[in-house]
Amino acid sequence: MSALTVRGLNVVLGERPVLREVDLTVAAGEFMGLIGPNGAGKTTLLRTVLGLVRPASGTIRVEDEPLGRVRRRVGYVPQRHEFAWDFPINVADAVLSGRVRRVGWLRRPGVADYRAAGAALARVGMTGLADRPVGQLSGGQRQRVLVARALALRPSVLLLDEPFTGLDVPTQELLTDLFTELSRENKAVLMTTHDLTGAMHTCGSLTLVNQTVIATGAPEELRDAELWRRAFGIRRGSPLLAALGVA
Amino acid sequence: MLTPQEFVADLFNPALTFLPKALFVALLSSAVCGVIGCYVVLRGMAFIGDAVAHAVFPGLAVAFVVQGNLVLGGAVAGVLTAVAVAVFAQNRRLREDSVIGVFFVAAFALGIVIISRSPGYSGSLQQFLFGSITGIPDEDLIVVGVSTVGLLLVAFLFHKEFVAVTLDRESARALGLPVFALDLALYIMVSIAVVISVQTIGNILVLALLVTPAATARLLTDRLGLMMLLAPLVGGASALIGLYLSWSIDLPTGGTIVLVATGFFLLSWGAAPRHGLLGRLARRRRNPDAVETAPG
């Protein structure tokens, strides 16, 4: 059973078609990189899967159920700038805020909520910083807080939007290890990234998107330079192709 | 100048019954504005607060002209404007601040036109704009009391939802929170907090009650719970000290309260443990080589 299945997805924003006939399958335990140039519709695809954008047509199923019923099984890690880091809140409470709908209206978080948030914090290695105000964290620590907030719901699918942007290489490697481990724990991890060479090395599979899916498969299956040229609109002999090892 | 003891004696003087009423209203409205103001400050919606503050004016004017209840009239106008802003701001072609700019000045203009139709309006206009401690009717005490309790209750009951939306709207929406309804609820709460404060502080200065105590509290702490406790304390202390000073040396009440609150803000800006000037200087002395930068 696949964790996330997208079939025949068409998305129109304003008058402009952004995604055409997108088919995408992410299995449980798969770590997939979603790559494509700016404006290819990567973020729109994630937002549509989250139910934030209404598609013109197509279906999205999570563990073989329609999205509306299983929203909680999809964890979302937005780009870091979406979060108000100047808000006076500590790491533990920021992670707990991921369970706000689970806790329910007019209720206070219970033991189960604190446990889930604590486990999520431990999972990303931030237990020691639980009491730290979020404004005092480094970029990598902030990214880990956002991952923990998503994990606090114990999702089966994890969507990450550009988690590496603005981070130094050691921090990127730390996060890559974390995402790989999460996929080994049988979560489906789908991540958009601009770090193509990194994705070639670390993701179990890649999907090349430019308005529609150009190609999908394990990195070693995507050796055809033509696919990359189509996805990124680059010329023959571009140094990028050499860097990717597909020239 | 009166001593504090004389001020207390005046509060209990049966010939000056308007004074304890004014104190009651000023204390409650500053406290409630302090709590609601925490969201205004943290969401960067000071401009919306200003807009709503001006928008209640036509409601007050209508209520004045037809001799209705001022608090009710102001609340209706403020809420209508808040809804208009929230709805029109959904149109992404115009930024929210432009929509606010259009509606709040229009509402204020409407208020001026309406109140000018009432004979002898200049006195009442001044009272609306700058506040007054005399002539608060008894029924307003009940309205202010009930509104305060209601607002604090709503703020408490929906605290975690308001926090989640303020932290990250996109994720809140993805989680299935009704972001639009929560925004609207917050605008309406700001309107009501403004309306109950207009009596004593005045329409022009009421924004200070929403922003200054909460901003002061933000400087003093990195914990939201503490901030929401400190802000109403700062607001309440400003109201008490401001009313005392204005009564004893005959200064305008609203202006004096706001200046006291501003004094608190400047004090905490200088002396706050982490964010204040003194704290920063002390840290630099202890650790002269450290360069202070925001973590990236």
Automatic annotation (TrEMBL), chain A:
- One GO MF term: ATP binding
Start and end residues of each ABC transporter domain = 4-235
Q: Which Pfam families match?
A: ABC_tran
| Annotated InterPro entries | AAA+_ATPase, ABC_transporter-like_ATP-bd, ABC_transporter-like_CS, ABC_trspt_anch-rpt_ATP-bd, Metal_Ion_Import_ABC, P-loop_NTPase
Print the keywords alphabetically.
Answer: ATP-binding, Nucleotide-binding, Transport
Q: Which PANTHER family match?
A: IRON TRANSPORT SYSTEM ATP-BINDING PROTEIN HI_0361-RELATED, METAL TRANSPORT SYSTEM ATP-BINDING PROTEIN TM_0124-RELATED
Q: Which family does the record assign?
A: Belongs to the ABC transporter superfamily.
Protein name, per record: Manganese/iron transport system ATP-binding protein
From TrEMBL, chain B:
Residue ranges annotated as transmembrane are: 22-42, 47-65, 71-89, 101-121, 141-158, 179-198, 204-221, 228-247, 253-272
Spell out the GO cellular component terms annotated for this protein, sorted alphabetically and separated by semicolons: ATP-binding cassette (ABC) transporter complex
Source species, please? Answer: Streptomyces zhaozhouensis
A GO biological process of this protein is: cellular response to iron ion
InterPro entries according to UniProt: ABC_BtuC-like (IPR037294), ABC_TroCD (IPR001626), Anch_rpt-typ_ABC_trnsprt_perm (IPR022392)
Per UniProt, which keywords does this protein have?
A: Membrane, Transmembrane, Transmembrane helix, Transport
Family statement drawn from the similarity comment of this UniProt entry: Belongs to the ABC-3 integral membrane protein family.
Q: Which domain of life is it from?
A: Bacteria
* Pfam families, A to Z: ABC-3 (PF00950)
Q: Where does this polypeptide localize?
A: Cell membrane; Membrane
| Coiled-coil segments | none
| UniProt name for this protein | Manganese/iron transport system permease protein
**According to its record, how does it sit in the membrane?**
Multi-pass membrane protein
